[in-house]
Amino acid sequence: MSDSVSPLPKVILVGHPNVGKSVLFNALTGAYATVSNYPGTSVEVSSGNCVIGEQRYEILDTPGMYSMMPITEEERVGRQILLHEDPHVVVHVIDARNIERMLPMTLQLVEAGLPIVLVVNILDEAERLGMKLDLEQLQQRLGVPVVGAVMKRKIGLEELFAAIKDYRVCPHKVFVYRNDLEQDITAVVRLLNGEYRLSKRALGMLLIQGDEDIKQLVEQQEDSDQHNELVEVLREIRFRRRADLHLQIGMERRHIGKQMLDGVVTQTQAAQETFGEKLSGWMMNPYTGVPLLLLVVYLGLFQFVGVFGAGTLVDFLEGFLFEEYINPPVIAFAQNYLTAEWLFELIVGEYGVWTLGVRYAVALVLPIVGSFFLVFSVLEDSGYLPRLAMMLDRIFKKIGLSGRAVIPMVLGFGCDTMATLVTRTLETTRERVISTLLLALAIPCSAQLGVILGLLSSAPPALAVWTIFLLGAFLLVGVLADRLLPGEKPVFYMEIPPLRRPQLYNVAVKTLTRMKSYFFEIFPLFILASVILWAGKMTNTLDVVIAGLSPVVRAIGLPTEATTAFVFGFFRRDFGAAGLYDLQMAGVLSVTQLTVAAVTLTLFVPCVAQFLVMFKERGFRIAVAIFVFVTAFAFGSGWLLNRMLVATGLLQ
Q1: For 558-582, what is the mean pLDDT?
Q2: Lowest CB count within 10 Å: 19, 141, 232, 525, which one?
Q3: 3-state SS string over 164-198?
Q4: 612: closest CA among 417, 445, 432, 436?
């Protein structure tokens, strides 16, 4: 993230989620940005360069954080950057409409002795609500530069450039707390003698709050005698304030923030509720939000991804381009020049690199993934996902999760491997384990979902059975996990951004970026999977595996040919779903068998990539336990569903 020859001065962007921080980052860096995992974590941090005047700066866009006291992995990474980087300026972006709630974090950053520039964003919407802000007066009270902005229209960008370019270190501002809390802070600060990037006052506050990372940092810096005395002082303070420590600190910061804003923020007129605000409320109300969610699922997932993506686009690419124009000359070339049987099979055989690997990746999976990512980008850019999280929070609490877990669950419909990584953002280990289990069990990735929707869309009753059964499995396993797993239940909080009309440019960039990233990830895996299957066929190993799994497949009412789809599914879920597509096109499966196969395959073991991420994130014991449970549950569910459908004749 930095030039090893001549390090560039850094500008670090921080702030709550959904305050326009990424919009500012894009305005500063343009197309010259990269995204990489922060060292030692799976949390992504965007970086890029920006030229202001004649000076080039490195811009870092940190994950959203609510305070300097981290709870999630994302917040911890944001704080680590502030602890270990040496910024020229830290730009704190806040939402003007929620300035009273966000200013306490500004106070923490200023108190930490960081070179702060405060950007009060979304001023246009604040003014529409009748708010008037005196930012010059706020700047005087905080002692740091304050810039008013509407970053989506690049209003305030030039003023921010000037603030960054001309930044001069301000005197360290101290905000005095009441109720003898100040005495405790002073008692801790006087025992800190090491050299730290943050102010000793900020470190003292974090130590009082029990921040483990700061404890380790201080332990490395202080001599043993001083540290032992510090530990005793902290123990006494925490014991004495054990009932209301965090609440009192939070209330003190809110009190100081209100003092800062006295006379700065005035309400000039009562705001009229717009249709967008009414729609936002409807989305979060279960009585109106559930019908809206069903409408989104029907139009977005069923019609667009299932019918258009998995139907129209796949028919065009796979049925027209590949079958009519691309495959015939490739196969003819192989027949003429690849005389060795093993080489012919490797390239264009049943499990050939071209006929299976390339065809599945390009003609089947890519159009489905692309259509899903397009829908997901529209929902993300509109601000619908946080509202969905709010609406589902009460239901998710029944299965040991909070509304925040909606995000990895929704991401799982794109890629379960990526979603498993995102579970790091959840608050407790217990919540991460439950989320990982449910992702592995009942959340189909976009390619698998699209193919299955395409297969079942011609038989609506089958699609209804598949949906109801998966939803039931999700809730049943979630409730059981909530009751059986030890640990504390999570507390939910989430920033609700304004509901906006999706911007075409943002949607296009997000969709194309995700498609590119996904394709470069899956294409080599599809080629590798086809080579492994080819090798298994040539050595008869595949026949042995299929023969071993065939009795289980027949026990759930499926023909032996379906076994191959389950073997495919272990390499990639979408690979297995595409195998079902081939069987359906060949007329091998009845509607009942197709429904049972779709349910079992969806619940079946996660793909190799997801299993490896589970192993890395949750550890060997938990990953294997989830693997075994999901496999047994999937085939047990398939057996039960088959018996029910045959007995009732529901799908005959």
Answers
A1: 76
A2: 232
A3: HHCCCCCCCCCCCCCCCHHHHHHHHHCCCCCCCCC
A4: 417
